[in-house]
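are you around this afternoon, could really use another pair of eyes. what follows is a protein written twice so to speak, once as letters and once as C-alpha cells for the fold. i want to understand how the C-alpha cells follow from the sequence so walk me through it. anything you notice is useful, everything is just below.
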Amino acid sequence: MDLTVPEYAYMFGFLQADGHLSQQSRHRGRLTVELNARDVNLLHRFQKLTPYNSSITKRTRSTNFAEVHTSATWTLCSLEARTRLNELGLPYGRKSKTIAPPSVEFPPNDYLRGFIDADGSVGFTKQGLPFISLTTHSTAIGAYLCSYAESITGAERTLKRNARDGIYNILYVTENAQQLVAHLYYPGCLSLARKQSAADSLAAWVRPAGMKFRPPRIKWTAEMDRVLLAAPTIAHAAAELGYSNGPCQNRRWKLLHGVVPLPD
C-alpha cells in the first residue's frame, strides 16, 4: 500500500469511503468491501493489488431498494494488512466523520477518484448538464475536495452540512465539472467501469447557444471592502473595482449590516 502509486492511492480512497475495518479479541478482524455484483471486477483488481490471501463472495437477498439484489464482498483478514491500512488512516469501526486524507505523499486525483467512485456521482443532470458530486460526512475530505477542485477549475465552494442529515453535498456542473472530471478520470486509470464511461461522456458536452455563463465568485479583500465603503456611490465603487453594481451593492449591504466584518 504505497500511496505514491496511483492504483494504491485510488484503492485507499475507495476503502476509506466504502470499506469497513473491524477488529475482535486476539488480533482477529477483517476488512470488508461490499458492492453491487455488477462492480465485482473492481474487487478483483483490489484482490490482485493485495499480496495477502483474501476472498470474494456473492450473495442475493431482498433490500429496501430491490426485491432481488446480488452483491459481491471482498474480505481480507491479514493482521499485517489491516495494521498498515489503519496506520494510513482507515479507522476501525464507524468512520464516516473521522476519515481524512493520509499524511503521506499521494496523487490527489487518484485518491479523490476513489472517493467519487465510492460515494459520488458523475453524469448529466435532468437538464442535460454535466456534473460531478460527492456526499460525505467528513469535513476533512470535503475541504480537501473543494481545495483541489478550486485549484483545477477556479470554482470556490463553501462547506455547509445538509440540515436534514448533516451530510456535505459538494457539486460541480457544466465546464467546472468537465475540467474536474478530466483530471480525475484520465485514460487508463483504475476506476469503476460505469463511472469511467459516464466521465468519458462528459467531454462531448458543449454549452448551448444563449446559455449564459455564471460569473465566478468574487473573492473580497479588505482593500476592496474599503473601496466599497469610501466610494460616494455604488456606481463609483463598481467602476473602480471592475465589477457590476449588483455584487458591489450586495457586499456593501453586508458590511453595513454586520453580516461580514468591516475591514481593519
User: Anything to note?
Assistant: The chain has ten helices and seven strands. The mean pLDDT is 92. The beta strands are 19-23, 29-36, 54-61, 69-76, 120-124, 130-136, 168-173.
